[in-house]
Amino acid sequence: MATAVTPDDLDWVADALRRRREALVPHAPVFWRPAPDADARHRSYLHHLLTDGGARAWRTSASVLIAAPAREGWLVDDFACVEDGIELWNAFATACAGDEVRFVAPTYETARAAHAATAGLEIAESWWLRELDGSGGGTPGVEVDLPGADAATVAAPPVYAPPGPMLFLPSVTDGAALPDAVDRAPTLGCAGVVVSQRAGDQLDAALGDAGFRRHCDFFEGVVRAIDGGARSR
Q1: Model confidence pTM above 0.85
Q2: What is the pLDDT confidence band of residue 85, given thresholds at 50, 70 and 90?
Q3: CA triplet 226, 19, 42: central angle to 5 degrees?
């Protein structure tokens, strides 16, 4: 049975989400290299969300879902689901039915993507990643002149510590910008390149040719309950 998370659950929640982060690291060891104080940083962030950050959160004996306020509706990123995914989601749906939601699903977590589809969400955006071993030391927050794309150096979230920022391309109008971005990134001290692809953009072939892999999908839609007969984790 899913119950609302309280601040008294903070240690349990932080531990469950730490185990989920650790399982992801081997899939992208540069992008997701843990910060030395990752556990303390994440626990502090979770405490903020659960006290004065406006989040809604539920747990079962094995799983947890945290819905953080977003510009429109909710962002579900902190979601560690061992089992009972439908129970967690339906507790969320009971409280927030009809609200907009953005659901983060790294491509390596196939059960998570299946859950999003079962909940009626659709991919709105995908991030493609190319890690660059041996590069780093750059400065985040730098706008980069890259013909055929918007580009800037972006710092990792505080729980991660890649050796440099990522060169982030939020928009690409010319596939020729992709190999150029890979060439430019080391000179900027970037540890990798991340490209945002909106649903419907025809960039898959060019991204693959430039050595990128689809790394994370962002599902969007409206919060609604899942039929109890559906299969979801």
Answers
A1: yes
A2: confident
A3: 95
